[in-house]
């Protein structure tokens, strides 16, 4: 592999590229630098991040001695302690909030939202009825507020979530309490 650039025009382009790099990166200000979750944020596509989020939740729930199996259909991601669970994953955005996307009216009992910050995690376990009241049909993701197919929970500030969301978690410990408090499901 050739590593020595001798062409003066290519050298000039390399020099300009180096100067431009500073406009596109903020060296030393990456909040994910040194984070155990950095590999997820910087090297994975959105689709892969979603799959990783599902596996993180499944592994965490299993490690907490909850019964976890794959969903019998594509309407939910997992069955956790007998409850059909749809899982949404977000990493912390630059503005300090999470955005949980592609929330649909499907067959599941609860939505598990997992948010990962560089050195922290947040989680909410939201019953379907609460989603219908505050999210589904209310916050259209692709076609504005009138959109019905997909919804999102945008700009969820983990230090100050909306009041309707607070009873359903915040920390992983609180989300676990919500899951356990639901009792064993029928699925």
Give the topology string: H per helix, E per strand.
HHHEEEEEEHEEH
Kindly report the oligomeric state of this protein: single chain
Total strand count, please?
8
Poorly predicted ranges (pLDDT <50, ≥5 residues)? none
Give the strand order, joined by hyphens, for the main sheet.
1-2-3-5-6-8
Would you mind describing this structure in some detail?
It is a single chain. The chain is an alpha+beta fold. Strand 2 (78-80) and strand 3 (83-91) form a beta hairpin. The strands form two sheets. It has a six-stranded mixed sheet with strand order 1-2-3-5-6-8. A two-stranded antiparallel ribbon has the order 4-7. The N and C termini lie far apart (57 Å). It has helices at 8-24, 38-43, 46-63, 128-134, 172-181; strands spanning 68-70, 78-80, 83-91, 98-103, 110-117, 120-127, 151-156, 169-170. The chain has five helices and eight strands, in the order H-H-H-E-E-E-E-E-E-H-E-E-H. The mean pLDDT is 88.
Secondary structure elements and their pairing?
Elements: H1 8-24, H2 38-43, H3 46-63, E1 68-70, E2 78-80, E3 83-91, E4 98-103, E5 110-117, E6 120-127, H4 128-134, E7 151-156, E8 169-170, H5 172-181
Parallel strand pairs: 3-5
Antiparallel strand pairs: 1-2, 2-3, 4-7, 5-6, 6-8
Notable characteristics:
24% strand; 187 residues; elongated; alpha+beta; 5 helices; single chain; 6-stranded mixed beta sheet
Describe this structure in a few short sentences:
The protein has 187 residues and is an alpha+beta fold. It is built from five helices and eight strands, in the order H-H-H-E-E-E-E-E-E-H-E-E-H.
């Amino acid at each position: 592999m050739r590593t020595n650039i001798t062409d003066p025009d290519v050298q000039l382009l390399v020099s300009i590229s180096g100067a431009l790099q500073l406009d596109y990166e903020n060296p030393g200000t990456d909040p994910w630098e040194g984070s155990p979750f950095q590999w997820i944020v910087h090297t994975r596509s959105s689709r892969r991040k979603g799959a990783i989020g599902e596996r993180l939740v499944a592994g965490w729930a299993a490690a907490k001695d909850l019964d976890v199996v794959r969903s019998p259909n594509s309407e939910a991601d997992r069955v956790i302690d007998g409850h059909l669970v749809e899982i949404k994953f977000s990493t912390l955005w630059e503005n300090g909030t999470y955005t949980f996307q592609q929330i649909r009216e499907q067959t599941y009992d609860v939505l598990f939202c997992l948010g990962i910050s560089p050195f922290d995690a947040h989680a909410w376990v939201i019953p379907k009825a609460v989603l219908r009241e505050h999210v589904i049909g209310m916050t259209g993701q692709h076609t504005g507020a009138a959109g019905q197919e997909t919804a999102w929970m945008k700009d969820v500030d983990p230090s100050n979530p909306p009041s309707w969301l607070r009873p359903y978690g915040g920390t992983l410990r609180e989300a676990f309490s919500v899951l356990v408090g639901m009792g064993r499901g029928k699925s």
